[in-house]
Structure formats: C-alpha cells, structure tokens
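Moderator note: this is an archived Q&A kept for reference. The question asked for a predicted structure of one protein chain; the sequence and the answer are reproduced below.
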Amino acid sequence: MSKVDVNNSEKTNPTRLITYKFAIHFDVFPEISYLNQSIPIILVDLLPIIDDFPKDVWISQQFVDEGLDFCRVVFWVFSEYSEAMKRFTIWFQRIFRDEKVVGVLERLILCSLDDADEIEIHLTDWTRIYTSNTDNQAAIDIELSK
C-alpha cells in the first residue's frame, strides 16, 4: 500500500489519505488483574486474516486502553480510497456478530490476564470513534512519517 502526500493539492494528487479510528471494547468481571498488553494488541493483527477483509485499507497505530473493569483495543485504519473505508466500516460492524469470532477474541483477552480464575470477559462494543480533523491529520502525519 503506497502512502500519499496529503499536503499536495487535489490537482497534482487526486487521492488523499483517509483515516478513521476504531475500538473494540471488552468488559472484565469482576475486574482486571494484571493485563499483558502485548496479547490484546495481537487482536488487531488478526483482523486482516478474517474472511472478506477489505482490500486497499491498512491498520496502524494500535494501542490498548485499560481500566479497572475493561480492556479496549484502539487502532486507526487508513486508505487512499473512500469506498474502501466504507467497505471496512461495514465489514467491521458485521464480523463481531459472529459468535465464533467473539468467542476467540474473548478467550484471547482472558489469556492476557495474569489471574484469570473466575473472571468473565464480554465483548460489549465495537465502534468507530469519531475524531476531529486535527486528530485525523495528526494520525495521518504519523503514518506518513513511518
């Protein structure tokens, strides 16, 4: 996937890099023990191998956000094509309706906990996070600097 210079004008570069921010949220009952963050981050690496992952998009800048009773994997999706981003958004909303996918991801989070005895994990939300133009541009600038 090539990365484009978003500073060029539309006349010299008709495609612009587009980005959306997404999150996958897990509730942890009763609460998180130690969370090995390197395991939940793998979840984002698994997305492109799931059936029908849209072409012309890539995932980057992922991180794990955790609280007392939740774990959230956050990431940015990039593309040069608005239609590809639309396909990704539809695909992303659909895949978490598959109980097999949800079960595997919940077990992945459970395995990342130091003390997983009597802990329940529930995938409770998967969503696009609406961000400002400034935040979008900052994510694009980071991506282009790689």
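Archived answer notes: Residues 1-15 have pLDDT under 50 and may be disordered.
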